[in-house]
Amino acid sequence: MPFSRPIWVEISKSALAHNVEQIRKKAGKQEIIAVVKANAYGHGFVGTSKALKETGIKEFAVASLGEGLELRQGGIGTRGSKILILGYSLPSHAEEVVSSGFVQTVISTHEIRELAGAAEKLGKPARIQIKIDTGMHRLGAPAGDFNRLIESLKHYPMVKLEGVYTHYSSADEPESPITSIQYGTFKKALEPHKLGKRVKLHASNSAALINFPNYRFDKIRPGIALYGEYASPLVPREMNLKPILSLKSRIVEIKTLGTGHAAGYNRKFINETSQPCRMGILPVGYADGFMTRSSGYRDVLVRGRRCKVVGAVSMDFVHILLPDDLSIGVGEPVTLIGTDGKESLTAGELGEMLGTHAYEVLCLIPTRIPRKYLD
After folding, report:
1. Residue 4: its pLDDT value, please?
2. pLDDT at position 182
3. Residues 6 or more apart whose Cβ sits within 8 Å of residue 13
């Protein structure tokens, strides 16, 4: 597809490698499972995974079978690397999960039985990990069911248990006792079983790696930290992470708005000053993840200066107010996320500004915006 719109994402591979190194230092001997679900948190699924593989990452976590297949088609998950499906896969997809060699998260004996049937039919082992619900109360087997799941595996020799894990609900809250309770529940569920060294245990996400560094198992599952952001304002900024994504565009038209004149749908912005104002039109809108609530709250950067978004954000265009003291014309570069001169706009800052968090700001950047991977 031709690069037809002046809006694009730049991904810094060197910043990504830096973040991986910071995580490795914090993790010690714990191995890294890179969480790349949801288009690598908006950074570009295959391109970012390839860049992670270049840093030595060997295991990747996705949300679904479809994501796993896309990653496999992109060359990830072969030659010594593996793909863990974190989400639920339909029983009708059991054969495809097994034939593709994916590691499937399971939470019930029914899923184990379906995968065992597929494995017998294909003559190929089904690789699984069991997820235990220790308090998130989302996807996961109740801790009390873990013994029954382990016992059921004795009846299905073609099903190979590779790991057991849980997910913390509140790891970004360092003062909360919830993570400690979940950690204890996980360990208690595991204690009666001699799982062996081949079965790897993991629980920590990016926030837990920082806030609860002593809660260690065999592996960790960093997501947002890989991309240079922190899980929430409560997480200490102690890892020297570097945001790897910049979102950029160019001004495609300049408007001069007289006193009392309005711009955009429903006259949401009116020039109420006594002087004309200059506005830049950007080819970006809510179809590009640029939230409608941005108007009046969000800034962009032009020549290192912050410019306010005004008027109604439409599907493909948005208005910004331009400084009176700068001669800015069509084609001028604009930074929507990233650094320009001495000013920066991070996904975390934008998340706070817009009443959400870095995850949503990044994940809303759609695939229709091309990604460029820079060394």
Report:
1. 77
2. 98
3. 51, 54, 244, 373, 374, 375
- The confidence score (pLDDT) of residue 45 equals 95
Question: Are 243 and 229 a contacting pair, CB within 8 Å?
Answer: yes
Residue keyed to tokens 């089904």:
126
**Separation CA 141–CA 130 (nearest Å):** 8
Same domain, 29 and 168: yes
Catalytically active residues are: 37, 265
Q: What pLDDT shows up at residue 78?
A: 74
pLDDT at 240: 94
Residues 115, 103: Cα–Cα separation, whole Å: 11
Q: Give the residue from 186, 201, 227 where a domain finishes.
A: 227
On the 0-12 / 13-18 / 19+ scale of CB atoms within 10 A, 206 is buried
Instruction: Give the domain range for residue 27.
Output: 13-227
The predicted model scores a pTM of: 0.95
Burial 52-69 (b: 16+ CB within 10 A, else e): bbebebebbbbebbebbb
Q: Say how many CA atoms lie within 13 Å of 250 toward its Cβ.
A: 9
Dist. CA 83–CA 67, nearest whole Å:
10
Which alpha helices (H) appear in 141-295, and where do they start and end? 146-152, 178-190, 206-211
**152: phi > 0 → left, psi -120 to 50 → alpha, else beta; which?**
alpha
CATH code, domain carrying 35: 3.20.20.10
126-133/141-142 β-pairing: parallel
Q: From the CA atom positions of the chain, what is the Rg in Å?
A: 24
Let me know if 286 is exposed, middle or buried by CB neighbors in 10 A (0-12, 13-18, 19+): middle
**Residues of the chain predicted below pLDDT 70:** 1-3, 79
Domain annotation covers residue 208:
yes
Judge whether 199 lies within some domain.
yes
Please give the pLDDT value at position 2. 53
Question: Considering Cα of 250, then 255, then 260, then 263, what sign does the dihedral take?
Answer: negative
Q: Is residue 356, in this structure, part of any structural domain at all? A: no
Please indicate, yes or no, if residue 236 is contained in any of the structural domains. no
Domain limit, last residue, from 227, 254, 270? 227
Mean of pLDDT over the chain: 96
Phi and psi at 341, nearest 5°, equal 65, -130
Supply the CATH number for residue 337's domain.
Answer: 2.40.37.10
